[in-house]
Amino acid sequence: MKRNIILWGATGQSIVNRSIIELNGDNLVAIFDDTVGLKSPFADVQLYTGWDGFNEWMTGKDLPNIYFNISIGNPHGKVRVFIANKLKKLGLKPISLIHPSAIVDKNVLLGEGLQIMAGSVVQSRAVLGDYVIINTNANIDHEVIIEEGCEIGPGATLCGNIYLKKNSWVCAGATVMPRLIIGEDSVLGAGSLLTKSIDNRVVFYGTPAKFVRKI
Fold it and tell me: Which residue ranges form the domains of the chain, and what is each CATH number?
């Protein structure tokens, strides 16, 4: 039976997520975004603006039978979690969007509302918190813990026994060596090689990655 799904976020992330929705045999029924004047990325799916638009759309809907996913990437992990929690309180159900080509080991602990894109690999005993994004061709090795709101960019590699705290962001093509910690709200820049743990709310970049600035 097809599930009816809404997406919040109407840019590139939603385009990828719609493909997953359809590959999994489900149906995208509406899309929402807070950006005024933004056009829907889909000719056949209406875009509603903000919470006013959501309240307009939800009138008369059977909300407990509608699922949602938040298609907003980092550095807006906190926003993704906030919107998700608000929709849950209204009665909608979070749904994880996992591409059929992704490899997720049976011993991975999965949170809710995840996005796991094509070609990504998540190895045994990893833990993915709520509303985490694992982008295309990312590699998450054994016993990696990723807290809620984090995003792993396309082609990034996380070696074993790594701990990512809330809302952190490992950008495209970056590599994190084993047994390191990335602090809450921190960013590892694209193509970087991280060889030491980093604190909360900092940006690191380079090979090897070095401190750039505080957030």
Answer: 4-95 (3.40.50.20), 98-203 (2.160.10.10)
